[in-house]
Each structure stands twice: as structure tokens, then as C-alpha cells.
Amino acid sequence: MRAMILAAGRGNRMRPLTDRVPKPLLPVGGKPLIQYHIERLAAAGVREVVINHAHLGEQIEAALGDGAQWGVTLHYSPEGEGRALETGGGIFKALPLLGPGPFLVVNADIWTDFPFMDLDLPEGDLAHLVLVANPPQHPAGDFALDGDRVRRDGEPRYTFSGIGLYRPELFTGCAPGAFPLAPLLRRAMDQGQAGGHLYRGDWFDIGTPQRLDELNRRLTGGQLGPCP
């Protein structure tokens, strides 16, 4: 299975930190935020990883190289400075690099100990979403979980973690350009083709300098475990 790390966001809420450094390269616990994902993907047996980038993207390629030091091959999907394609458009552009089978996608701006090897996409489903308990900054959640089915409405509601397993067919009918992923996920939900589960392990949305500092304190203080 191949994986994609979404790393093209501008990181406006992280300014001024992201004025000169792309958000995925911000250091936390002694290494770039995106490196934790690469290490966990490698530990899960993923050997090919696609990374899209836009703002200061050349720094990402220079810092990570070809991925050999982690035992993976990194492929890059550049979107151009100031022209990020949003989540859906970025994945759609990278589909030729992701192959014909299901692929894993993870947002670069989260930290988690989620075991990527545990993901599975049953026949007939277009998406499997990992949901988490609603954090203080997002109390209303995103989607409802009904057994192993994800719904746009209902209770209980949880937050989409930014981790999902998708089939290329989820993007049928899409055209090149910038567009979000959420409408495609809702379409799959309406068709009964979106599954998911609740993850109760460690997960942090690194959306502000304050949350980055808190994660750094936990990592350096030994409150969170190291990557495998």
C-alpha cells in the first residue's frame, strides 16, 4: 500500500513561524513534525510515500530527500508557491503516483501514535475514516459514527483525524484544480460507501503555536511514547 502526506497548507494560524519554514518542517520533540509520520508509515510496512507541497515546498524536498534514511521512497507532488490545491485537489493531482489500489492519506499537521498497519478498506467501500474524540477547539465534531458506518448527520459525533484510507474511485468525476475532500466523503457516506472507527489513542491537531508548544513539552517531558 502507498501513502500520501498532505503538506501543502500555508499554515496561516502558525505565523510568524511559517513565514520562513513550511509547517511540516516545524521542529517538535527534536525533529520535524512530518518526520514522525514517515517513521510510523515505514514501521507499518509502507515503502512508497507521496508528499504534496506548495508554500516553501523546496525546503521540504531538501530536508527529506529521497526517504532512503527511513527505508521508504519519497515522491513529491509540487503544487506551486501560493497555489495549493486544497485537500481534494491535491490528492487528485497525485493519483498517478498513488497507483490503482487503496492508499492511505494523513495530514502533515497532526501528531499521533495511530498504528497505520491496522487500517483496512472492505470491498465496496470508497473510504475508511479514522475519527477521534472532539478536541476543545472543535467541540461539535465532523461526522457521526453508526457502528462501522460514517454518516454526515446523527449522534454521537466525532472529529475526523485527518487519517483516511481511500480508493481512487472516490475521485470519479473530479477535474484538475483546487477543491476540498469533504464533499467527496459526504457523497460516499450518502451512498453507504464510507466506513470508519474511533481511535482513542494519542492525537493532536497542531494548528497554533500554542498547541505546538504543548506537544513539544509532552514529547520532551516523556509524556508521549517515541515512534516505533
Automatic annotation (TrEMBL):
It comes from the Bacteria. InterPro entries: GlmU-like (IPR050065), MurU (IPR054790), NTP_transferase_dom (IPR005835), Nucleotide-diphossugar_trans (IPR029044). GO terms for molecular function: nucleotidyltransferase activity. Residues 3-118 form the Nucleotidyl transferase domain. Keywords: Nucleotidyltransferase, Transferase. NCBIfam families: NAMPUrTaseMurU. This is Mannose-1-phosphate guanylyltransferase.
